[in-house]
Amino acid sequence: MDILKDYVYDIETFKHCFTFSIIRADGKHKKTFEVSHRKNEIDKILNCLDYLRDNEKRMVGFNSIGFDYPIIHKIMENRERLPKTGKALAALVFKYAQEQIESFKDGFGNTIRTADRFIPQVDLYRIWHFNNKAKATGLKMLEFNMRLSNIEDLPYDIHEELDDEKIDNIIKYNEHDVWCTLEFYNCSKSQISFRDDLTIKLGRDFTNDDDTKIGAEFFQMELEKAGIELKKYQGGKLVMKQTKRDQIDISECLFGYYKFDRPEFQAIYEWFGKQVITETKGVFSDIEEHRLGDVAKYAELEVKKQRFKQKPTAEELTLFKKEYPLGWIEEQELKATEYVFDSNGEHVMEYQLDSDGNPDISKKKKKARRAKISYWGCYRIATCLNVVINNLRIDFGVGGIHASLSETIVSETKSYKLKDADVSSMYPNLAIANRIYPEHLGEAFCDIYEGLYIQRKSYDKSTPENAMLKLALNGTYGKSNDKYSVFYDPKFTMQITINGQLSLLMLVDRLLTVEGLRLVQLNTDGVTVAMLRDTEQEYSSICTQWEKDVGLQLEFVDYSKMYIRDVNNYIAVYTNGKTKRKGAYQFEGLGWHQNQGGLVIPMAAEAAMIKGADVEEFIRNHKEKYDFMLRTKVPRSSKLIMRMEDGTEIQQQNICRYYPSVNGGKLIKVMPPLEGKDSVEDRELGIDTQWNVKTCNNIENFEWDIDYNYYIAEAKKLIIERKTK
Question: What global pTM score does this model have?
């Protein structure tokens, strides 16, 4: 990768000011240009852009394909027709910016095709797939995760009048964002190099593709090589081939090798076989009891209620029972009561009784009352498809199968060992072994899939070829449920996910016949068990036979101990001493889109559980200040204030780094009134309300006035103490 050809840039567009800042990727040749009422440097901007174009340089930005570059492109395209004054030109560029933002509200937005760009673009936002809703991450959050010394957010409204001081601040902010983008560029060099290498080797531009798209694109190339047509003419237009379905009969998706001994698992298998679905999202959740069949005998169910306005009529009862055949009516006595009247309209009185059992009128108690009754229609649902075995709940869903012990420590002993078995490349191999494929791509899809799998094993794991092939293998399953993908066939999606769950369930069914074996975790493509050491040969025989029956391969590891909060949050210690961390216990290897605040908390919890460290001592002696930093973000429609004990309020920037402090104030999110409500008052929401905090967007403002009690309390919440017998 030649960093001398890459130039990092960013623009700021206000109604009365446009700035453009750029720096070469080695940190040299920094330039910032201004267009406003006080100066017009558009010629310098165009000269800079012409230099980049004529010398085959690249522009590197953050969300630049979706915002910055289309505006730059319009400026270059209309260079002969641009206004002459800086004020008018700034207003025009602002108009371009607003049109660009609006273009994304109804679709994919206005982007310039790669072939049409005047200057090649590298968009870090797209490379890291931050344009995916689940991974959406802005530059300010990256500044926090990169632990930059200064996190800056601009407080000015894009429409407001700008004096010289504000324009100067905009320029500083623009330069700050370019510097931060350059920092992230340096963190992204391996990803950029990987894409550059693929582009050269495969002759297709992968520069701004995220990992999933790279995998799908490469697979498409292999399909085309094999002569499989990916497009067809429809209505006179060339469109992408896909298989769209009005409904999917799950019985047609199931493989033929299933056999279960446990009645709970047989009930699940039979239930799947009876389903006909019209969509793939949320179809195995909130299932009413009467729709569960035999699964209801073994499932954990939750009671739902709906209130009747008054005692239900026979007609209302009939309608309720029709909708919920296993439902029932409950009467509930309310605290509110009503007086009881006699036939003359007088209050009926209650009296204490005398020794003969007659009312003693001298000892009047109170007016007689009759309780009000409310009526509720009740029914049970499974929040997700599940069965409970040995007090352990196994959940099923489109996302996979899940089960786990919770709030417990599981350890190997002289008699017991902890064994984990994961299916190797489960989803690709399910398709390969069982010859399933998106219908419009034909069975040759399986041959290509298998070829890629074999090809990947021939490359070292550290090579870009291995990485790319891994993406091709794993990304295809996800794309099969993407209505914008050539792999789209939701039946293929369901074949993979349901058979993956049932295949693992069949392994569990067999393993539970081993004497003394206990299920510890079950998670998408693997199963962890605690078993007697002298049953390991039996365990291995079952696994080997299962591999033959289903055409999949297992990979095994041994744990010495597991600290389990739940299926998504745990620490597993391998017998070689290395650790595997998930969820709340992760403090290394976190993704850029993940919250990396307060990392001293999981560090302290792990040290306490694994090494027997004292939590308070660990935290008080920890010297990396960034591990104490937390962050919060509020939208532009809201504001963030620091409220001090004396009532003073100090507005903060909307993206804010802070830490609990013995000398701080209360951090408050102030939101506008809800639309459609009578109240015109702003709404307030406290952040870490039990604690005083200090903001620390500039790390130079940090003082070691930490309120350690916050971190100690949070770490103790993560500590698992109960041991499984």
Answer: 0.87
